[in-house]
UniProtKB/TrEMBL annotation:
It holds the Pfam family PALP. Belongs to the ACC deaminase/D-cysteine desulfhydrase family. Keywords: Pyridoxal phosphate. The modification N6-(pyridoxal phosphate)lysine is found at residue 42. Residues 7-291 form the Tryptophan synthase beta chain-like PALP domain. InterPro entries: ACCD_DCysDesulf, TrpB-like_PALP, TrpB-like_PALP_sf. The keyword rRNA-binding does not apply. The lineage of its organism: Bacteria, Pseudomonadati, Bacteroidota, Cytophagia, Cytophagales. The active site is at residue 69. One of its GO terms (molecular function) is D-cysteine desulfhydrase activity. This is 1-aminocyclopropane-1-carboxylate deaminase/D-cysteine desulfhydrase.
Amino acid sequence: MESLPKENTPMQEIKDPVLIENGVRLFVKRDDLTHPEVSGNKWRKLKYNLLKAKEDGYDTILTFGGAYSNHIHAFAAAGKLYGLKTIGVIRGEEHLPLNPTLAFAKSQGMQLTYLDRTSFRDYRSAIPQLKNTFGDFYMAPMGGSNDLALAGVAELGEELNQFDHNIDYLCAACGTGGTLAGLITSISSETKVIGFPALKGGDFLYEDINEFISSVKGRNSFPEWTLNLEYHFGGYAKKKPELMEFMALFNQKYNIELERIYTGKMMFGVFDMIKKGLFPKGSNIVALHSGGLQINRS
Ligand SMILES: *Cc1c(COP(=O)(O)O)cnc(C)c1O
């Protein structure tokens, strides 16, 4: 049997003169190492959704996503590992040959279906029709962010709380904000959390993240958190030379691969903030590597 994703992922300290000059330490939480195909935050967010689908007796799980999405990729692989049939509802029209993300999803047994861009904006209203076509299924939302996803991410937060240094700042990339919300609800109150939205105009995330957080019961004081909206590099999937160069150098120096949509921008932002002296001297900073490296092969 293929092995299931691993947790308790390692923490890697980055050694660089820039860090010494600015009096900070930087550690990368290597959550990209959970599993080659079900990586990082996508695994964290799927875990309890998969268990719930099984517990409730579903044999099919369905979700929504873009044609290059890490979520679709991870969902297809995770479904296979857990013996669940998967359906991926993809934004836009079918393009053949399939791109590498969708070809991979199909190779994992995912059944692909398409929803035009206009209907996709309100994808939940397509669910009854999808049930007519495919029969009953367990649905995970676009990007996988729901309350069960937050519970999975909270386990990542617990791992971080076990780290043998105090974490003064925790930095993570944001898409839907589900991952950041899961971290905010689980990380020690001593840690300040900074999110780096991948999208331009990411300030809508303040509201979304607050909504996710307020759905979590059992904790009433949360750490300080904020979003840094300055590192979207023009939008979701733009290939900016400055960013590509930073990522190549980062990989060369520290042997950590990043991708241009999420972790590359976040790490660029973290280094830029360090160089600008925005972290107090003596700070321990943790940057979450949330995985998603399939983007580099797509
Ligand atoms: C999807 C994704 C994110 C964004 O996660 P959200 O929970 O949607 O904010 C961050 N990093 C990587 C690598 C991702 O694939």
